[in-house]
Amino acid sequence: MYRKTRLYGLTYEFHSLKEIMAKANESRSGDDLAGISAENMKERMAAKLVLADILLSDIRNTPLVDPDTDDVSQLIENNVNEEVYQVVKNWTVADLREYILSDDQMGKDLLTLGSGLTSEMIAAVAKIMSNLDLIQAASKIKIITHCQTKIGQQGVLASRAQPNHPSDHLKGMTASLYEALSFGIGDAVIGINPVIDTTENISALLHETKKVIDHFQIPTQNCVLSHVTSQMRAIEKGAPADLIFQSLAGTQAGNESFGISLSMLDEATAMINEKGTATGPNRWYFETGQGSELSSDAHFDIDQVTLEARCYGLARKFSPFIVNTVVGFIGPEYLYDSKQVIRAGLEDHFMGKMHGLPMGVDVCYTNHMNADQNDMDTLSTLLGTAGVNFVIGVPMADDCMLNYQSLSYHDIATLRSVLRLDPAPEFKCWLENIGLMENGKLTQLAGDPTFFLQNV
Amino acid sequence: MENHQLEGLRKFTPARIGVGRTGTRPLTKDFLSFRIDHAAAVDAVYGEVSSELLQEFNLFAVETCYGTKEEYLKRPDKGRVLSVEGEQLISERCVRNPQVQIVISDGLSASAINENLLDVYPALLDSLSLYQIEVGTPFFVKGGRVACMDAIGEILNPEAFILLIGERPGLVCAHSLSAYMCYRPRKGMKESERMVISNIHRRGTPPIEAAAHIGTLVNKMLEQKASGVSLVV
Amino acid sequence: MGNWITSIGLDIGTSTTKFIVSHLSIAEQGSPFHLPTSQIIDRTVVYASSIYTTPLTSNHDIDMESLLTILSTEYEQSGIHMKDVKAGAVIITGETARKENAEKIINYLADRAGDFVVATAGADLEGILAGKGSGAKVRSEEIEGIVANVDIGGGTANVALFEAGRAIQTFTFHVGGRLIRINDQEEVVYISEYVRPWLEANCLSHQTGKGITFHELKELCTRMNQSMISFLSGKPKYHADLLLVEPIDKPLPLIKEIIFSGGVGHMMAGKEPSQINEVTTFGDIGPLLASTLLKVSKLSGFHLINAKETTRATVIGAGMQNTEISGATVFVQEDLLPIKNLPIVRIMVDTLEFNAVAFTNQLDEVIKQARRLYEVEDPPFALGLLGMDYCSYQTMKSMTSTICQLFHQHFPNATCLVVICESDIGKALGQSLKKTSHEGMQIICIDQVDFLHGDYIDLGFRTAGEAISLSVKTLAFG
Predict the structure, then answer these.
(1) CATH number at residue B169
(2) Closest chain B residue to the Cα of A416, Cα to Cα
């Protein structure tokens, strides 16, 4: 695909859709590292200008990775709702933006639209949207999913309790979990990143979280975020798992570097449906994050926004309960500072929602990024207004195992209070019954982990 | 009574639990102590290794192609390549084909070197000498990444390599050191051939004990002529 | 993974004898990012004997013939092969723990119990083992504060205080079920001489051969328990010091929870006697001591925790808990192992504010003392370094040169130096000692050993990676 345009007396030429897509991105260090970003602001704007005029059918007909050699491309291509696509194929990307933002289109219209789009089309439109565009569009879309409980309703901000421990100490994990629950956190999932990837250890963590859930009759779901094959071994041996987890990449090569394949995901789906402990139909928890394909040299010179969208194209086939973009975890070589992290968080959330996915965001940063907790306050508030399905909480924002900072349990309680949002309905009801919440507000008893010791 | 229970819970985890709240927000001292720990972590990333410390151990310094700190953070690839001057200095001053080459680098935490080198380095030299292993000419690499060991390996051709490098700082500890080791470092070597002992600092893996263990591991590498997953320990 | 050793426990007490066989499973965790660690991850009882009355020929002498019959029957029933037994302990307690009794038993076991059974005795260690068996040790790891295990048998109540999984203090009371015995004519037939001073001080004296009422017995037991409990709460009443076997060697810390084990601990859960004939059927004050103890301790303000094991606490502790594993990065010359009955010479080291002169003087003093106490063998002792939270390179160098110099000065002919320490620096210290010591000196330096309570150590073989098995004990036989 060859396009050119003139801007301020200069001609800008682009030789491929890949080049246009990359250069149209808002600035980020990962695209610089890959050597595919625009040289300057004007070239970036020229690329956006050109992209806005490209037809959706052109995007579909110009695959960035050949579906014959990449199963993610193939899956995205095969899952396009042709009926919808026929209606929109002659739209430009600009038309698509305006349709999405129009007052006439409700969330369900956007979900229908999304089913007829490829991931590349959704990535393309994100590139010509402002931050507030991304918020406005995403806020219309509500996606309710059902594992043990349901989340995603209007007016609900759910949360993952992430009670990690540097040596997977069960009591340490439980102590941290009590802290989360006492702030009303943990309605999306109680999810642990283990240090030790053995079957015994994963089983022990699944049993322990399930024990707490059963003992206090908490309406939520458990998950241990190790490699899918290790979880399968534990589940096979009878460990109680509501959800099964895996990190995804946007190319087949990227997934291979994660040690997974589509058939492995199918196998895991069958197992969690048969042996999982949940009752609802949505049993997957996926995580993604811009930059992972480049880090495993599986990016094929495609920009990281487009690759991220392709992760969502892959994820939607498996009807997950939750999808989470770990936006600030990967490091400054992919997202350098808070400006880039905030942008990426909003893009990922919007793109995921357009794919019909129950999107959550790990609002986070590492210590070698140019960001601090104030930036997380900003991004979490923006995502709260955009209707994010869930966010992640750790004690005082400090994850003592993964060594990065996310949101504090306090922060999630604050977002709910400021934005007038509630925990998931069943979880809220539970909080009220045990006395931690009253009329949608935390009671005097809340915020104290020893509350759960009185009831052990 | 309640405080006692809280202490009981806190005992099991370094996580910041039981901090309480005012409204939905944390109390001032907890909030500030969190920000202080973050400040220490950021300063560790942007800090410098003490030149007196390098002089004390007679370590000369070379740089990678990182240029600036910002570039170092954005371009890990540049921290894997030595500057032309650096390559030249190494060629001029270092013994070739040593049994073991030791290199020290700031990596992502200069304070990891400042805090731990005084213990780790001499204990490591003792340990290697006990195994009668000959050490080449050690030096310091500013702006290094782990894989700079491959580039150095190409120039000096050591049998085994030890890189002491500052880790990405966390809030629990901003000056944690890692020791990466491998047999026959060279360009294009697999990550699975590298070995690492991490979390070396005074409240983590004790620095002198880590050094003693590194000596044992390197001795095994030389005996078995292998490192990483294929080494039998 | 999958590495385990068989351990036996034998408890020959004043009134009862018990035997257990257990499996200790040892795991080496070799994470690619950390120093390797080894630990005992599981301790399981695979066989437990019934509880026998210790066969005696007189009040004190063990009927060896009968005891040997019991043991051989039990060995056979348990189905273990003696060559597989790698660890364990024989506890001989109370009035049976006389040297000639102990030696007879040890001689018998020497042929039958495998090479690594530790013979041991003494109320301090017995109290600690009971606390390990009853669950007090584990409980102290779970809570903030001190847990006291009070193991009450026939003759004594052995108290062990645990904090964060470590025994920090032990002492013993003359409180037990068989100190006073009554016959079915409701007459006192025996009063141990150990409790007479306390009885007199409390105006509770009785004479043997004279009758005693239920009320009088109950009052006596209540007062005895009140006295003991008042001592534990730091405000001794009713001449509690007269109940102590020996005065305590340091002030008593604040105790938070108490666990009662032993035969009397077991009876606390039983029916409360309400008249004299319910007491006399046992022939001693055991049941009444137990039921009054329950009442007294409930009023004491201590938090009471149920024991995981009562009557068998000591034998379970002995069989399952006496063997430990050293740290996994240590300095060991394998051909020197095993080494048994090595006296421990302790010295406290302040590595944070290290003072070389003070260390030299202190070490010189303890080595001289050791030379007076023990026969000189090679190695003469294990130097136990307590403390050392964090040790810098400089401090380590200074320590090792002092150790090597003084050791050579006092034991010019010794060829082996053994050092044990609590914190994880054994390998560094061992390498440094090797470098500093005289040519040919053999060094064993192991870490992560809890030797605060114990006078001797047995060093076993390698069990997982570099780690070796070991037992710390209070008495050495043979």
Answers:
(1) 3.40.50.11240
(2) B24
pLDDT for C34 beyond 80: no
Whether B26 and A448 lie within 8 Å, measured CB to CB: no
> Would the CB atoms of C144 and B11 count as touching at under 8 Å?
yes
Q: Render pLDDT for C67-118 as a digit per residue (tens, 0 to 9).
A: 888 888 888 888 877 777 777 777 776 656 566 677 777 677 666 655 556 6
What DSSP state is assigned to residue A160? E
- The domains of chain A, with CATH numbers, are 145-452 (3.20.20.70)
Determine the Cα–Cα distance for residues C209 and C187; give it in Å rounded to an integer: 6
Is the bond preceding A423 in cis, omega lying within 30 degrees of 0?
A: no
CB spacing of C393 vs B203 below 8 angstroms: no
- CB distance from B187 to chain A under 8 Å? no
Query: What is the helix (H) or strand (E) element at residue A246, kind and residue range?
Result: strand A244-247
Q: What is the 3-state secondary structure (H, E, C) of C395-442?
A: HHHHHHHHHHHHHHHHCCCCCEEEEEECCCCHHHHHHHHHHHCCCCCE
Q: Is residue B199 part of a domain?
A: yes
Q: Is B24 on the interface with A (CB under 8 A)?
A: yes
pTM of the model: 0.81
- The predicted-structure confidence for A249-268, as pLDDT tens digits, reads as follows 999 999 999 999 999 999 99
Domains observed in chain C: 3-122+317-321 (3.30.420.40), 136-307 (3.30.420), 330-446 (3.30.70)
- Taking CB atoms and an 8 Å cutoff, what residues of chain B touch A337? none
d(CA B145, CA A15): 35
User: Is B22 inside any structural domain?
Assistant: no
- Between C206 and B151, residue with greater pLDDT: B151
Q: Are strands C303-305 and B160-166 parallel, antiparallel or unpaired?
A: unpaired
Of B11, B126, B203, the CB nearest to C432: B126
CA distance C135 to C141: 10
Question: Quick check: B5 contacting A, CB < 8 Å?
Answer: yes
Amino acid in position B127? S
CB spacing of A453 vs B18 below 8 angstroms:
no
Cα A335 to Cα A310, A323, B15, C95, distances in angstroms: 19, 20, 27, 75
Pairwise CB contact (< 8 Å): C33 & B199: yes
Q: Select from B9, B30, B38 the Cβ nearest to the Cβ of A367.
A: B38
Interface of B with C (CB under 8 A): 4, 7-8, 11, 118-119, 122-123, 126-127, 129-130, 195-199, 202-203, 205-213, 215-216, 233
* Amino acid at position C242, single letter: L
**Interface test mutation site (partner C, options B203, B213, B214, max chain C beta carbons within 10 A):** B213
Q: Domains in chain B: how many in total?
A: 1
What's the average model confidence in pLDDT over C180-188? 88
Q: Are A366 and B168 in contact (CB under 8 A)?
A: yes
